[in-house]
Every structure is written in structure tokens, then in C-alpha cells.
Write a structure and sequence with these properties.
The chain has 358 residues and is of the alpha/beta class. The protein folds into two domains: 133 residues, ATPase, nucleotide binding domain (Nucleotidyltransferase, domain 5); 127 residues, 2-Layer Sandwich (Nucleotidyltransferase, domain 5), CATH 3.30.420.40. It contains twelve helices and 14 strands. It has a six-stranded mixed sheet with strand order 8-4-1-2-3-14, with helices on both faces. A five-stranded mixed sheet has the order 11-10-9-12-13, sandwiched between helices. Strands 5-7-6 form a three-stranded antiparallel sheet. A hairpin with a 2-residue loop joins strand 2 and strand 3. The longest helix is centred in the last third of the chain and has 26 residues. The two termini are 12 Å apart. The structure holds adenosine-5'-triphosphate (ATP) and magnesium ion. Adenosine-5'-triphosphate binds next to helix 7 and helix 8. Adenosine-5'-triphosphate (ATP) binds next to helix 7 and helix 8.
Length: 358
């Protein structure tokens, strides 16, 4: 699945890519290379995200990207950046059959009709999710605008934000190649890591972030539902600090190091997330009359066995964490190879973004 901003579709395939997932709490970066039919992971990095008030200033992002490049010691100039859930809108829309270029223009001029809000100053990208019933698949984007409606996945973000990202990337010495909505990352990484499940089953991909989490339900490759829930790892730490009357930093250490010992405090903090996720699963299951067979968790909090176990119980569903690197070749240092298994679930969005761009 690709919903990149500013991709003409006629570009050359890059042989390598640095993808930087600008998370709310932690920046994740991966350096990937094309190797034969597959891809190699050549390096990765976790770094504290820059702290800012409302919008990330260009200078701060420039310095941050330079720090990423320096720490990874990577000569790759091609850069892909991700947009957080609050910066990119990703939604299904019904539109008449027309070329993608026209769709972008129609959305720009009629955002109130299609997206129920004024979105002047936004840039759009589209991907046909299911072509209009009567058109043949490869004719779906040709010819004059038809009457038949088709389901289109739309992504949009503020022009200004895209311009800022492009400028910061250039100032840091990169060639900005793709800017990808972060929610697309787990889907692309999943397609490569577990192709059979992706093709045949109904699954939920849940990325637990810092302030929020995203859930995407896929049915035999198709993205059916995509929601963002305003609960993430921050809620667990802040709630634990309050319950135990300790500092945020102390609570963070306890949450990561010995979650089982504070089970009675942590479990109720996960309940609202469990409830929201269950509601999404129920919605899908009623609409499509089939169960979601498995829930695949990614993001920093999914590194915790306690979190995975608790959600499994609360959702009454087969919840598991997964490794987005299983089908990648590894070209890492011995230290990075040793740590990868623990860190991999947190790299999912960055790996998926790199795969979109490569
Ligand atoms: N081993 C662990 N156990 C529990 N929680 C963890 C662990 N490692 C990281 N976390 C939590 O993961 C969170 C950060 O996760 P992640 O990097 O996926 O978020 P982000 O991408 O920065 O945020 P967002 O996606 O919302 O922008 C933090 O709240 C941190 O406490
Ligand atoms: Mg994230």
C-alpha cells in the first residue's frame, strides 16, 4: 500500500533509503537497502524525539535529522519521513471514477463535500481501494469522470508541514524522497513480514504509540477500518506515577523494568485502550460477519509482555507482538543484531515507511 505525498509514480527505484519515524516520544530510524528481490536492514536507531510546543520548528528538525544521520553513521542521502496520526488524515471516501491527479484536485476544491471539513492549505494523495463495480480493473482510472462511485483511500496533510519537512531534510543534507502517513507503516511492514496472513485472513494491526494508538483492520489485504485512539504509553506511565505517588521518570522505570510487580496499578490503566480496541473489533465483526482472527501489536509498549498479555485478556482475542524484520536480510553490527529482537516491534512504522519508498 502506498499513499506517499509528492510521489509522481514515475520515479526511479532507489537502491537504499533512510526512513525516519518522527514519533511523539521516540524517533526511530532505519537504513535499508535493496538486495536482489528483497531488502536488507543495515542499521537502526532509537533517539529521544525533540521537544517542542505546537509545531516542530524547521531548525530543530534539521538538527535532529543531522543527529540521526551522525549517530547511524550512514551515507545514504535518500530520506523518507513519517507523519504522526494528528498530522495526517487517512480516510476512505466514495468518489466517482477519475484519474488520481483529478481526484486530488477534486478533493482540494471540495473538501467539505468529501471530508466534511474545510481543508484549504492541505495537500492530498489518493489510492483506489476498490474500483467501481462495472469498470475493469485497469480501466478504473482512465476515461472521463464516470457516475460509478469507487472507494478511495485518501491521505491529507498541511502543505506547510510538508514544506517544513522538505526544507529541514534538505538543510540536513538529505534528498527528501517520500513523506508517508505513519499509520500506513505497519500495514506495509506486515505485508512483507507475514504475506500469507496478510492475503488470507482478517487481522487487526495495533500500533501503541506515546499519546495515541492506531488500529487498522485488514480483510484479505484490504484496509477496512482505520481508527486512532488517544491512549498510549504516556497514559500508563502518568497513571502509574499518580497511583504510586512517584515521579514520571520513576514510574517509567518501573513500567519498563518490573511491570508484573505493579500489576494491580497497571492493569486498570490499560482497560480504556482495551475497551476502545474491542469496540473496533466488534464493529468490524458485525459489519463483515466474520471474526478478526488475530491482533498484531507494535509500538514501544508492545515490547512489554505484560501489556500484550493484559490486552489479550481484555480483548478476549489472540493478541501478539510481531517482528517486522523476519523477512529482511540483516546487515547489522553484532550489537545491533543481538538487540534487534527486543527493539523490532518499535521499528515497525519506520520499516514500513522505508518499504513504501523503496
Ligand atoms: N519495554 C517497554 N515496556 C513498556 N513500555 C515501553 C517499553 N519500551 C518503550 N515503551 C513505551 O513506549 C512508548 C514509546 O513508544 P513509541 O516509540 O512507539 O511511541 P512514539 O512513536 O514516539 O509515539 P507516537 O506513535 O504516538 O507518535 C513510551 O511511552 C515508552 O514508555
Ligand atoms: Mg509511533
Amino acid at each position: 500500500m502506498a499513499l506517499p505525498f509528492g510521489d509522481s509514480g514515475a520515479r526511479k527505484r532507489r537502491d537504499q533509503m533512510l526512513a525516519v519515524d518522527l514519533g511523539g516520544r521516540t524517533t526511530k530510524a532505519v537504513h535499508m537497502q535493496r538486495r536482489g528481490d528483497g531488502f536488507a536492514l543495515c542499521g537502526y536507531l532509537l533517539l529521544d524525539a525533540p521537544i517542542f510546543e505546537k509545531t516542530l520548528p524547521v531548525d530543530l528538525l534539521t538538527e535532529h535529522l543531522k543527529a540521526v544521520s551522525h549517530a547511524l553513521d550512514c551515507k545514504c542521502k535518500w530520506l523518507t519521513l513519517t507523519l504522526g496520526v494528528s498530522d495526517a488524515l487517512v480516510r476512505h471516501v466514495e468518489m466517482p471514477s477519475m484519474p488520481v491527479e483529478d481526484m486530488r484536485l477534486v478533493l482540494k476544491n471540495n473538501s467539505r463535500v468529501y471530508l466534511q471539513q474545510d481543508m484549504s492549505g492541505y495537500v492530498f494523495d489518493c489510492q483506489v481501494a476498490s474500483p467501481a463495480p462495472q469498470s475493469k480493473p485497469n480501466e478504473s482510472t482512465k476515461g472521463p469522470p464516470g457516475q460509478q462511485k469507487q472507494k478511495v483511500l485518501v491521505a491529507s496533510a498541511k502543505n506547510q508541514l510538508i514544506d517544513d519537512f522538505v526544507l529541514a531534510a534538505r538543510n540536513a543534507g538529505f534528498i527528501p524522497d517520500h513523506i508517508v502517513p505513519g499509520v500506513i507503516g505497519p500495514i506495509n511492514a506486515f505485508e512483507r513480514a507475514l504475506p500469507e496472513v496478510f492475503e488470507k485472513e482478517s487481522v487487526a494491526l495495533v500500533d501503541i504509540g506515546f499519546k495515541s494508538s492506531s488500529i487498522s483492520i485488514l480483510k484479505e489485504k484490504d484496509l477496512i477500518l482505520n481508527r486512532v485512539v488517544a491512549i498510549g504509553g504516556d497514559r500508563l506511565t502518568a497513571g502509574l506515577a499518580e497511583a504510586m505517588n512517584i515521579t514520571y521518570a520513576e514510574a517509567e522505570g518501573i513500567k519498563i523494568g518490573m511491570a508484573n510487580e505493579v500489576q494491580s496499578q497497571l492493569e486498570p490503566l490499560l482497560t480504556p485502550l482495551g475497551r476502545e480496541l474491542r469496540a473496533s473489533l466488534d464493529f468490524f465483526e458485525h459489519q463483515h460477519d466474520r471474526p478478526v482472527s488475530q491482533v498484531f501489536l507494535s509500538g514501544g509498549s508492545s515490547r512489554s509482555d505484560f501489556v500484550v498479555e493484559t490486552l489479550r485478556r481484555q480483548l478476549m482475542a489472540d493478541c501478539r507482538t510481531w517482528n517486522p524484520t523476519t523477512t529482511l536480510k540483516l546487515a547489522l553490527s553484532p550489537e545491533q543484531t543481538a538487540e534487534l529482537e527486543h527493539i523490532a516491534p518499535q521499528l515497525t512504522v519506520a520499516i514500513g515507511a522505508a518499504l513504501t519508498a523503496l
